[in-house]
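Lab meeting, action items carried over

1. Structure of the two-component assembly. Owner: GW. Status: complete.
Input record:
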Amino acid sequence: MGKYLLRRLAISVPVLLGITLVVYVVISLAPGDPVEAMINPEQVAALGPDFLDQQREALGLNQPILVRYALWLKEVAQGNLGFSFMDRQSIAGKIGERLWPTLRLMLTAQLIAIVIAVPVGVMSALKQYSLLDYGATVLGFAAISVPSFFLSLAGIYVFALKIPILPAAGMVTVGQEPTLADSLWHLVLPAMVLGLAEAAPLIRYTRSSMLEVVRQDYVRVARAKGLRERTVIYQHALRNALIPLVTVVALGLPRLLGGTVIVEAIFAWPGMGTLAITAVRGRDYPVIMAINLISAVMILLSNLLADLIYAIVDPRIKYS
Amino acid sequence: MSDHQHLDHADSGMRSRGVSRRGFMRLLVAGVGVSALGGLLTACGQQPAPAKPAEPAKPAEAAKPAAPAAATTAPAPAAAAKPAEAAKPAAEVKPAAGGTAGGQLSMHWTKPVTLNPLFSTAGSEQGVERLMFGALVRVNDKLEAIPDLAEKIDVSPDAKTYTFTLKKGITFTDGKPLTSQDVKFTFERAVDKRAASYWRGRLLDIQGATEYGDQQAQTISGLETPDDHTVKMTLRKPDSTWLLTIGDFSGLSILPAHVLKDVAPDQLQKHPFSLNPNVSAGAFQFVKYETDQYLEMKRNDGYTGGPKAKLDRLFFKILAADVAAAQMDRGELDLMIVPTSEMERMKRNPNLTVVSVPSPSVDFLAVNVRKEYLQDKRVRQAMQYAIDREAVVKAIYQGEAQVVNQTIIGPDWMGMPDLNMYKFDPDKARQLLKEASWDSGRALQVLYVPGTKERDAYMPIIQQQFKDVGITFEIIPSEAAEATRRRNAGEFDMQQIGGGIFRQDPNVSGKYMESANFVPVGGNYGHYKNERLDELFSAGRGTTDQAQRKKIYTEAATIMNDEVPWIYLWSPNSIFAHSKKLVGFKAPSYATHNMWNADEWTVAG
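Predicted assembly:
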């Protein structure tokens, strides 16, 4: 097992290098120029004709892409993510202050999704083709199909305007001492929107996995032994049915850090998604790269994690 | 670019309309991690809310028509020469009826990149900096220059020397006095090439500024400080619009030298002060900025630059426009710039007041006259005739915009010269095209940055109307960064653009029309060149005589009207909504100046 872990980690290094190289080259080749994106032509007039070139030089943009990549890699290897082109602030700092809000939102949403999805999925499977099953299916498809911006705005319209019980946006009430209750109150709507969208596919996974398991021989044996139905379902069937779900959830982990652009924007949530989109639009290469690096690491780690958990929950799987 | 919002290519702040597939693909290409998808359009860091333009120069409506002309000390355009009088509005506005001092209000705001006035490019940033910092001169709601930290401004008759006398007893929020040394420090950093401030270009007309900025001189020779309260500026050439140059946007805010003088110029933007400007000398002072959430300010109780502000606190909330509208309805927000489409709905809310005023900006289609097929002015005139602008204004702007036929549209002493109106006339357009032997098989490439409701709506209409007269154009939706690159490289036929502060002074048009200002060096997008126009703009800057200037610019307007270097569209109004709680709001012509008199505001009740 230890050896397996080491080998997987060792393989991750070249994969990571490959990812960053490809991303670096692609964003550098994408049309648009970070310096021009920052500056208004009227201003450049005032700054003198060589200003743009000077700025490019100051940002190191006059060098070939591969040289820039090597320099970036060198800094990152030393733990330095660099500075944003746009506001010249440290990227580690920028990411640091957005990490907690993002995690807070995404974890809550994930939790809501699991709490909704597992029971509904199980019931759907046990009462296949019942009204409840159809209901869950229809609602699930609706939740997947309706874009999150619509769900968000509808949520605001209903719960902030028509029945004003929740705040329309924001993470705290502006101008008040922050309290836990106030934070939770602001968390409800965005987390519900995200949680619902997330729950829908999980319901489907749970349902089909459960359907498969209840037809297995060992479930029939359990029933034949005369165990109570409740014991059969929860002790024998459900535990096995949840195994594929572990993978699905684990593979979704990187999203927890990535945030969600649309919902963050609508609810004025100061998270990573907003940072990412601002960076892309401004061609802020160092910020884009930093976010990418984090995403890539998270994805590789969660893949690994999913495999490891798999081995734990399913004793048939052994790594060597 | 302090002028940034003046030229936003339609990509205004955040929009909550999800992701177009194209936008989505572009993001993928640009390489954001798979996790961060979604196509939201946050403008690249600096976008102001839709910088609403408009121009209609209803001559009578505004403050003082042409009056003060020739006063020798007074540069024509600015009310500046008589500080006492200019400062008067403060007295007039008074805490309007029923308002009480104290209390707090919340404003809709856009995410800032920086709060250091030397580096701010967005109107939303400049709007709050104006409240926190002091400047020598500022512009008021009519875009006239008014003194701020200066008690007196003496202008030499040749408009080359400006002497500012600072008010006595002004201190920064940390108690240190604000002196001419702070002014000197600010101007020095602003022109220093290493600092790369957006102010640099505007200030190079000060004698010796270029040399100092390039580190070839120890001081700026044209910037003298004979004592603690006097700043004397000498310009390289006469400029009667100088006070507007240093007063525009939030004005060149004076930074505290004692806090920042030891910071290397190239480190200035990186300095924590940029997001924590806690030492300043304005009517309000910085409390905190919660990243991507809100900015908080409180009254500066030690303010001596004028009457103290009345409100206790101001909050600036970063919200998507749709959500801001919802918060207005709930009474959680007190002021926002309103999209035309929201106007009617907001008018129906009894708790809100909606105000619509002409803005100084213009929407237009820049024409790349480097392409030989666009060099015949009859082709451009035909395009001008081909668009039914009155109908678009009525249908899409609900009448809240005014058609323009060149860009010299103000201020009041200038008015809008009465010229060819280019009334919608497709037959005339076809005839002109025929005379110019237009090849109807040619497809023009029109750059467009989508994302503003009104513009998204009218671009296809223009396309159709062009098609009716035999001009085919292909709308090329681009991101701002890519549109700018193509524009600067000349890889386009036309581009949809909106913005500018044309109403402020006729000279503003020169930034877009003079041949010295070709992009990427200036704002002349299509590299249009007309020697007579160049002469006229230069002559207009060289005199302070208003009557003379009016004559000069009327000729310039006539040329611009006939030559059609751009296809002129209209000037949309600035529309604001504020809660009835906010007392004392005076709608400024430039939308992002909407907090220009926040120190006079009170809360109803």
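2. GW to write a short summary for the group page. Key points so far: Residues 118 and 184 of chain A are 23 Å apart (CA to CA). The two ends of chain A are 6 Å apart (CA to CA).
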